[in-house]
Write a structure and sequence with these properties.
The chain is an alpha/beta fold. The chain has 20 helices and 27 strands. Helix 15 crosses helix 16, helix 16 packs parallel to helix 18 and helix 17 runs antiparallel to helix 18. The longest helix has 30 residues. The chain starts with 8 loop residues before the first helix and ends in a 17-residue tail after the last helix. About 40% of the residues are buried.
Length: about 700
């Protein structure tokens, strides 16, 4: 067989793809092992989290292939509604265009063109880490089969009475102009003022005097003895619009330790106040609109942004004797995790799904142990969230995404994937991105199934690869994605979506902060790859792959680890040169059918025993998902047992030791292959007898 010579990593990757080594085989007699790649956002460039996630997935996929499994590592891309639309609109604004100028149809046409361009520019980076995915099965969340799945999900919920539309308080991002989920909100610690306002005979504290125009009551805790004589009474209070009457109510939600123990109740712009308002039948007054500006009820302050209105009101509040005191106050402010704008709780007409029963059923399957969690404590974390879940707001005021399949004609309403006919107008909103992502384990394998003689017939892919054997995620989307996949999959199939759920830790800077463009603390994995190569970068990242444990890194630390593992690669190349290129010419007579295993020499016996221990340990570490321990074991064996000890001793009996050297080196390459795929393939091809690729070798036992 002609030895293959590779010029670079791309050369090797192209070879793997050409040989279709990554392809799963529906007709294989081998047992299956399926891994579902979390779909990166369409506009998302490769970052350290992706790089580590893909490295872990790939190591397991390569390991399982060599163990004799038919492996499906399925890739995909998420349309990322809010993020994509924001990125695209910025591009349009640079061209002097807006949504309003283009209109929905033309905007969508240009958006799809932009999607194709941006996908080409980022998809290569996902392959760059050596991801051995079956690219022939790649899925995009707006593909036709995903559209069919999303419609089936929506219609099922609608027909069962689980979907409804109505006004409700939501987290609203004024910049992205859409409702967002609670778990898409971050909290930013800010130093602001706590304002003490006089309300008739009582004084209360608030950080938001600008919402005063929407106050409909004062509230105290029913156990607060200071105010028991005030509860139920009405008092005249001074406002910026003159005097008005306001009642004092009692509610357990009031914290008697905050401020004076009295709060103003603004049901339209605070989640706690909204619930207090519902319990006490309080009216709702809208003070802040969807642009983050004060409404007409604010009088002369109408049209002003929240922060500006607050500053403008203070002199008048002081002048009228309403503002009596100010204090420094440190508290957490809700911001949109994408654009970092301050989030406003507002009442909005949205679509919701009642998920209470689905959530209860999901808790049962989790409690039954049908999914193995790494680390195990995430089982409790997820069940607690599912047990306390509220209705899911599924509508978004965007144009990019799965449009809500509801049509209107006068007072009529129909749920349909296509237009019911002339005169029907479709709902303007799209579905939450997580609505389609929650179906990811199902839609990627062809759900919903076609009807065969009135009976749903599962696809071959679904029959073979579902439930998925392995899923991986960053902890930050455990509620947005993982909990919902479990809930949705169990609801539609009565099966869990995956058997193993691995939460990798977050990589943070040395101060413990998340990496972000705004902080300028990010580390580009492409820089590490250019500097040290893919294999060394992967090895550096495996050292941080402990389940659920965050790692603190810096460019300097990763450079040091990258350099160390590049040197490790050089060490293996030097060993290969010694063993394969500089081998003596008189070793053929020493060959045996068991490839040198019959040697009685004590050094040969010792290194083979140490190799056997290594194989057992690496196998155990891979199966228990402790990849950081596996790479440590391989590193120590190669550097110390093989290079420092055995090879040095073998030099005095080179011809006799040659078969053992080749045997040990080949097995080291095999157990190292899941972690350093390029280097191991390159050296493997130097052997006289090989299979097409090292990936087709059997895992040693």
């Amino acid at each position: 067989m002609t030895k293959k010579i590779f010029i670079n990593e791309k050369d090797i990757y192209d070879f793997w793809e050409k040989e279709k080594i990554f392809s799963a085989d529906l007709n294989s007699k081998k047992p299956k092992y399926s891994l579902l790649i979390p779909p990166p956002n369409l506009t998302g460039e490769l970052h350290l989290g992706h790089a580590m996630q893909h490295s872990i997935l790939d190591a397991l996929a390569r390991f399982k292939r060599m163990q004799g499994f038919d492996v499906l590592l399925l890739p995909g891309v998420d349309h990322a509604g809010i993020q994509f639309e924001s990125t695209f609109d910025k591009k349009l604004s640079r061209e002097g265009l807006t949504k309003q100028k283009l209109g929905r149809d033309e905007w969508l046409k240009k958006a799809w063109e932009f999607k194709e361009d941006i996908y080409k520019s980022v998809s290569g980076s996902w392959r760059m880490m050596g991801l051995s995915a079956d690219w022939s099965r790649e899925v995009f969340t707006l593909d036709e089969k995903c559209q069919n799945a999303v419609f089936e999900e929506f219609k099922t919920y609608f027909d069962k009475g689980l979907i409804y539309r109505g006004p409700y308080i939501v987290q609203w991002c004024p910049r992205d102009q859409t409702a967002i989920e609670d778990v898409e909100v971050e909290y930013e610690q800010r130093k602001e003022k706590l304002y003490y306002l006089k309300y008739g005979p009582l004084t209360l504290a608030t950080v938001r005097p600008e919402t005063k125009f929407g106050d409909t009551a004062m509230a105290v805790n029913p156990k607060d003895a200071r105010y028991k004589d005030y509860v139920g009474r009405e008092f005249e209070i001074e406002t910026l619009h003159g005097k008005k009457m306001m009642r004092v109510i009692a509610d357990d939600a009031v914290d008697p330790k905050f401020g004076t123990g009295v709060i103003k109740v603004t049901p339209g712009h605070d989640f706690t106040d909204y619930e207090i308002g519902k319990r006490n039948n309080l009216p709702i007054i809208h003070v802040i609109n969807k642009e983050g500006k004060l409404t007409d009820v604010a009088g002369k302050y109408a049209g002003m942004k929240v922060a500006a209105a607050r500053e403008a009101m203070l002199p008048e509040l002081r002048e009228k004797g309403i503002l009596v005191k100010e204090e420094e106050y440190v508290h957490n402010v809700s911001v949109c995790e994408r654009c970092k704008s301050t989030v406003e709780p507002i009442i909005s007409e949205e679509w919701f799904v009642n998920v209470s029963e689905m959530a209860k059923a999901a808790v049962k399957v989790i409690d039954a142990g049908e999914i193995e969690f790494f680390p195990p404590n995430y089982k409790k974390i997820l069940t607690e969230w599912l047990s306390d879940i509220h209705d899911w707001c599924i509508s978004r005021s965007l144009w990019w995404g799965h449009r809500i399949p509801v049509w209107y004609k006068g007072k009529e309403m129909k749920v349909s994937q296509e237009s019911p006919g002339e005169g029907w107008k479709q709902d303007e909103q799209v579905l939450d991105t997580w609505f389609s992502s929650g179906l990811w384990p199902l839609s990627t394998l062809g759900w919903p199934f076609a009807n065969a003689q009135g009976k749903p017939e599962k696809t071959k892919e679904f029959e073979r690869y579902f439930p998925w054997d392995f899923e991986i995620s960053a902890p930050e989307i455990k509620y947005l994605w993982i909990a919902r996949m479990i809930m949705i999959s169990n609801y539609f199939t009565r099966q869990v979506p995956f058997k193993t759920m691995f939460f990798h830790g977050m990589l943070r800077d040395l101060q413990g902060r998340k990496f972000s463009k705004s902080l300028g603390n990010g580390i580009d994995p492409i820089y590490l790859i250019d500097q040290w190569g893919v294999d060394a970068t992967r090895m550096a990242l495996y050292t941080y792959s402990i389940p659920g444990r965050d790692g603190r890194v810096s460019k300097q630390i990763l450079d040091e680890r990258g350099k160390n593992f590049r040197n490790f690669g050089t060490k293996i190349r030097n060993i290969a040169k010694f063993v394969l290129e500089l081998k003596p010419q008189d070793t053929n007579s020493l060959r045996s059918t068991v490839y040198g295993l019959q040697s009685k020499n004590k050094d040969d016996k010792w290194i083979k025993e140490e190799l056997e221990k290594l194989i057992k340990q690496v196998t155990k570490n891979l199966e228990s998902l402790e990849l950081h321990l596996a790479v440590d074991d391989i590193y120590n064996f190669v550097w110390h047992d093989l290079a420092d000890k055995y090879i040095e001793k073998s030099k005095s009996r080179r011809g006799e030791a040659q078969m053992t050297l080749e045997y040990v080196l080949k097995n080291v390459l095999i157990v190292l292959h899941p972690f350093m795929p390029y280097l191991t393939e390159e050296i493997y091809q130097m052997f006289d007898k090989t299979k097409t690729s090292i990936m087709l070798e059997e895992w040693p036992s």
